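Hey team,

Filing this mostly as a record. A colleague (T.K.) asked me to run one chain through the structure pipeline before their review meeting, and I want the input and output archived in the tracker in case anyone asks later how it was produced. No errors, nothing strange. Just documentation.

Input sequence:
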Amino acid sequence: MDCLGPRLVVAGTHSGVGKTTVATGLMAALARRGLQVGAAKVGPDFIDPGYHGLATGRPSRNLDAWICGAEAVAPMAAKAGSGAAVLIVEGVMGLFDGAAEDGETASTAHVARLLDAPVLLVVDAAALSGSVAALVHGFRTFDRSVRVAGVVLNRVGSEGHEVMLREALAPLDVPILGVLRRDDRLAWRDRHLGLVPVVEQEGVVRDSLERLASIVSGACDLDRVLALAGEARPRTVSPLPPAAHVARVRVAVAQGPAFSFVYPDNGERLEEAGAELVPFDPLEDAALPPGVSALYAGGGFPEVYAEGLSANRGLLGDLRARIAGGLAAWAECGGLLWLARSLDGRALAGVVDATATMTDRLTLGYRRARVLRQCPLGAPGTELRGHEFHYSTVTPEGDALALESRFGRGTAGFAGPTLLASYLHLHLASRPDLAEAFVRCAARTTLSPPQDSDSRCESGAGAPL
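Output structure:
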C-alpha cells in the first residue's frame, strides 16, 4: 500500500494567471530548504512537468482522470509524493475548466476532490482592486466540495495596490499566502501556448529557477503553505497493477532536444513488461542502438530541429532498413513526423508514406480511439484513450485508428503488425496491457522477423524515401 501524505493543489482562475510560476516556484523554494518535494500536473502536459522535475530533482507525474480513469488519480499522486515531505500539484486552465465531454471530468477541481486536497488559488491581480473579493468569493463558494483554502496574488503593481487587495479580501477571511509583484524576471519564454521544454535550455532554466526560488521564498509564507498542505488527511491507497513480465527485449527510445515528450509512466510500464530502454538522440546518433528489437519515438518539437534530423542520413537509412526488417515501432506525434516522408519539404525517414506540414492552426484535445488495423499495441477493436496537441498536419491522414472527440469523429494514423504511428499521445499508467502488447510484439518480431514488407506496414508505411 502507498500513502498519500501532505498535499496541495495550485489552481488558477483561468489560464495564464501564473500557475506554473507559483507552483514551480514553491517546489524550488521548498526544495532549497532541503525538503523532498513531490510534483504532479493535472491533465495532459509534457512541458510543465519538465520544469517541476528540474526544481525538485524528482519525476513529475501527470494526474489525468479522463485518460487514466478517476480511480488512478490517487495512486499516481501517491507515487509522485512517495518519500516526500509535501506534494505540490499544478492545475490546468481555470479551477473548474475541464476538456472532457462533460466539461468537468479531469478539471483541476475534479482532481482536487479525488485527492481530498486543499486548493491554493492564484489570482492575476494586475487589473483588480475591490473586485478581487467578488472573484475569490465566487471561486470559494461555487462548489463547496472543493476547498479553496488560500490565495496567492500575482502581478501586484505596488505596495498601495497590495494594501487595497488585502483590504478587499479581509471580510472573506481567506488566507493570503503570497503576493508576487510584477517582475520581468518571472517571465517565461513561450512556444505553442506553453513553455520551452527544459531539455532545450537546461542551463538557462536552472538559473531561472534559482531566481524564482528566491523570489517565491520572499513573497510567499512557506511555513503556512506547508501547514496548509498538512491539513490534507493522510490516505492509504493501493498502487496500480503493474505490467506482467512478457519477455526481455531492448527498446530504443528517441530522446534529446527534439523528442522530450514521453510520460515517465510509459517507460516504467515497458520496463515492467521486460523492456530494457536504450536512449538515443536522433540528432546525433548515426544508427539505432545495437541489439534493439523495438523503437519508441514520443513527441516533442521536431519541426524546430527538422534540418538536423534531415541531415542525419545515416540514422534515417538505418531506421528505414530496421523497420523494413521487422523492428517493432511505436511513434507518437513528433515521432510520426520523424517517420514521415518529409516535414515542410525536408526529407525524413520515409517509413510512413505521408508528408508533414506545419500550420498556424492548433489541434488539441482528448480522443477516444479504436484500433482498426493490427498494430504493436493491440488487435483491431482495442480501445484507447489519449490526447492530441500539434500544429502540423500529415497528408494523407491515415486510417489505422477510429477517433472520436466531443467535437467529431474521423480516422487517422498508420499501422501494420509491427508499426503504429499517429498523433495520439497515450498514458500507460492504467494500461499495462498496452506495454505488454508492445513488448510481446518486439519479442515476436525478434524471434521471427516478417519477410514481406507489404504485409507489415499498411496505410502507406514502409514506403521508400
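Quick notes for T.K.: The chain has a mean pLDDT of 92. The first helix runs from residue 19 to 32.
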